[in-house]
Write a structure and sequence with these properties.
Length: 260
């Protein structure tokens, strides 16, 4: 399976990535992603589309996780890597580069050399959905993949940035299943929201089995609707990423770019 430089290389995550890429659980999503891969977009007529579920991307010992919505039909569904090859990804990876968490500001293909430093990118739905709108049933069917990913990341994971209300609603029950305590009533999504989740496993299973508490941050999604209208500006995104990276204890491995 092609995952590109910087994809999870730990045995557990590598196996998970491969299993995700072979999933055919949701007939509507399977039909759509494969139809898009056949018909293509004129601008990408010479591409061989990935056309499968898109696994997470980033190191197996990430301290920070970014949770989106789902791959774009002509982005991740084409390239095989989360947030790669579309306008949303352009915004996200530029911001990650600006704050020192990525090796380059662009993400155009799975083999472009991009590396992420201490951060992994994933989504609650791994297939491109029609009109960018997965159904609640598709979200729930895909949740076990996110739960497994979270469990594998538990030893190092300390903070999560969730992009958009859909991702927030999908991620909270996954956090609970993966071993963190989600407050009741469930926290409400908002840009700049910050929620502390305690480690539910540590008291019962001991320090070795538990990971640690988790700081969860809300951020408007990097969709064209939000970025073109100014609802989410580059500085707003950078600020959330900086704060979350600080909470995770992850400062990046390169000097931040020139964008403040």
């Amino acid at each position: 399976m092609e995952t590109g430089t910087g994809s999870g290389t730990g045995g557990g995550l590598a196996d998970l990535d491969e299993r995700i890429a072979g999933c055919r659980a949701c007939p509507r999503l399977v039909d759509w992603r494969e139809e898009v891969a056949r018909t293509k977009r004129a601008a990408f007529a010479d591409w061989t589309y990935w056309g499968r579920p898109v696994p997470g991307f980033g190191p197996a010992d990430a301290r920070l996780l970014i949770v989106g919505l789902a791959p774009a039909a002509h982005g991740g569904n084409r390239t095989g890597r989360m947030f790669t090859g579309d306008r949303s990804g352009d915004v996200l990876y530029q911001a990650l580069y600006d704050v020192g968490l990525a090796s380059q500001p662009t993400a155009v293909s799975a083999g472009d050399g991009l590396e992420l430093y201490g951060v992994r990118v994933t989504a609650p739905v791994h297939c491109a959905p029609p009109a960018n709108k997965p159904t609640p049933e598709e979200r729930d069917t895909c949740r076990p993949w996110l739960v497994r990913e979270l469990r594998l990341l538990r030893p190092t994971l300390r903070a999560v940035v969730v992009l958009g209300a859909f991702g927030w609603q999908a991620a909270l029950p996954a956090f609970a299943e993966a071993g963190w305590t989600v407050p009741r009533p469930r926290p409400v999504f908002g840009h700049g929201a910050r929620v502390r989740l305690d480690d539910a496993l540590r008291p019962a299973e001991g320090k070795e089995e538990g990971g640690g508490g988790l700081d969860v941050f809300g951020c408007f999604h990097v969709s064209q609707r939000n970025t073109f209208t100014g609802r989410l500006t580059p500085e707003m995104l950078r600020e959330v990423l900086r704060t979350a990276a600080g909470a995770a204890g992850e400062t990046g491995l390169r000097a931040p770019g020139g964008a403040g």
